[in-house]
Amino acid sequence: MSRAPNREFQEWWNQQRERNLDLSSSSSSSDGPSTSAGDPLVSVEIRTPRSDQAVEKSRARSARQLSWVCLLRFQQITSLVASAASSLVSILRTANRRIAASAADSSSSRLYRIIRFFLILVLALLGFELLAYYKGWHFSPPSVGSKEVLGYVELVYANWLEIRAKYLAPPLQSLTNVCIVLFLIQSVDRVVLVLGCLWIKIRGIKPVASIDYEKKGDLESESGDVVYPMVLVQIPMCNEREVYQQSIAAVCIQDWPRERMLVQVLDDSDDLDVQLLIKSEVQKWQQRGVRIVYRHRLIRTGYKAGNLKSAMSCDYVKDYEFVAIFDADFQPGPDFLKKTIPYFKGNDDLALVQTRWAFVNKDENLLTRLQNINLSFHFEVEQQVNGVFINFFGFNGTAGVWRIKALEECGGWLERTTVEDMDIAVRAHLCGWKFIYLNDVKCLCELPESYEAYKKQQHRWHSGPMQLFRMCFFDVLRSKVSLAKKANLIFLFFLLRKLILPFYSFTLFCIILPLTMFLPEAQLPAWVVCYVPGVMSILNILPAPRSFPFIVPYLLFENTMSVTKFNAMISGLLKFGSSYEWIVTKKLGRSSEADLVSFSEKESDPLLETSSLHRSSSESGLVELNKMEMTKKAGKHSRNRLYRKELGLALILLTAAVRSLLSAQGIHFYFLLFQGISFLVVGLDLIGEQVS
């Protein structure tokens, strides 16, 4: 049955079709050719109405916005260029002023003469290579055996190519390979130390004391009193005008029975005003009931070792069981002795308890930040791993407690080197004594804020170990310790970490790398220049995670310091005169306000016998402070200096960077450029404390 057609829909469709045809015909007659009525295709043009005024207004607005953006960008670029130009002018003025006012610094040293010769050589080679590049010889090098007629300069260049390929490049490549092997060995040692530290952290390994002074039950004697051993505290100092007061105060407020502790202030000062200030400070604490004595040597022989040796020769020392040593800028906490002495109980073979250093001025400038990275790795990783696994590490010279019996058994303090702390630690280890390192007990101290002070400190720290290695090498071989301990002392403690590290660091990155730019037949791989040092820098910075933004300056600065460490290592190994110099590291007396307030509160405790005594001591303290400030003002003014070895190496590296551009060596160019800038900044003494 068929459905009836829908006529209403048909009528509506026809009406719509006729209307569209009418619109189309009218549009065609006015705008263009018309379509035939029978054409089945119907075109309908749909136009969106737009206002010409709106279009013009939007165009004007867009042009105005673009102009403002361009002006803003131009202002930012102008400001940046002006700031950079101002900084450059300031640096140039500073450099010019320091060059004009600088005294001769190490100009007569052997290493400086070698660097100066090396600089002249690379400048001459660069000029020769630029001439060859201009002549096009880099793309078609001339050959001595060719049939072409060569000019004089071209013949010289051809002979140079043959000489460097046959005679110069092979030994340089051999030296490069040796340094790469040493570099990899030292990197493996660093990775092993980091893995050992991670193992200690994961397993929660730490020394455990057999007694606790907070729990007095284990310490009571038959009479019911707590037994405290007799402790001698020594503060060696020499002309420590800025820090003597806070160090003496920090020791005198120790939470330890007064009758069981004696403080020795060992003053080697040759400044009469400083002697009077320190003596007055000692008398002030004596009036407050603290057992403290002042000792001054007229003849300062043996430096710090001689000072400590003289103090240990006193008759009353035999009454004491332990000795704690603090340098003049160290501020131990009031509970320092209560946190360290308990570890000796039940450990009769324990000679030393070493604590960690913490720094009051680690954020003072870029130099102190970079030092904090190095020392954080030293204490967190090296000292802790060696203390846990082999019970031996180098004594840091301060912030430690020794068993006096161990000091006497291994021969006491000797004056033969400038690293008396490492000397006595090695001798005690050879006698069979053990060491403990406490990473969670911290002692506040100062970092050198000027590059001059830091450089002198590093020279002593790296020349002394080589002196000691020469003197005790055969003693190590003849000792009764195990073969493993002998190998650890000789190969790891001395050779790898004290000799090889500064040797390959200076030789590889300051000598070989620039030479390979002028002797391209000898190659230094990019992974040695960039990738492995980058990984090692990341490992070094792990104990100080807040310092990650300074990882690139740290890498460059460590290579910059290699010239100082290499020079010190050679001086100590070959017994040059500079290796026996002892210069006290300059301190500025940095101390947080909280520390000073705590000292004041401790001083106001009932330590005083009478209120009048307290008043007179306070008044005398004010007089001493005023006198100290007046003496500071009358003292010598320090100034920044120029360091010629660093400046010479900066020019060598920048010259090699220019040469690397001719060979299109990207990574080598950037490394040489930034390393050269780093040497330049250090050579102009722009990294640490700036003295106007």
From TrEMBL:
Keywords: Cell wall biogenesis/degradation, Glycosyltransferase, Golgi apparatus, Membrane, Transferase, Transmembrane, Transmembrane helix
Transmembrane feature ranges: 114-134, 175-200, 489-518, 642-661
Superkingdom, natural source: Eukaryota
Region Disordered: start-end pairs: 19-43
Record-annotated Glycosyltransferase 2-like domain positions: 323-516
Cellular location(s): Golgi apparatus membrane
Membrane topology value: Multi-pass membrane protein
Keyword match Glycosyltransferase: yes
Residues in coiled coil: none
SUPFAM superfamilies: Nucleotide-diphospho-sugar transferases
InterPro entries reported for this sequence: Glyco_trans_2-like, Nucleotide-diphossugar_trans
Keyword hit for Cell wall biogenesis/degradation: yes
Annotated PANTHER family: GLUCOMANNAN 4-BETA-MANNOSYLTRANSFERASE 9 (PTHR32044), XYLOGLUCAN GLYCOSYLTRANSFERASE 6-RELATED (PTHR32044:SF67)
Protein name as catalogued: Probable xyloglucan glycosyltransferase 6 isoform X1
Organism: Rhodamnia argentea
Lineage, highest ranks first: Eukaryota, Viridiplantae, Streptophyta, Embryophyta, Tracheophyta
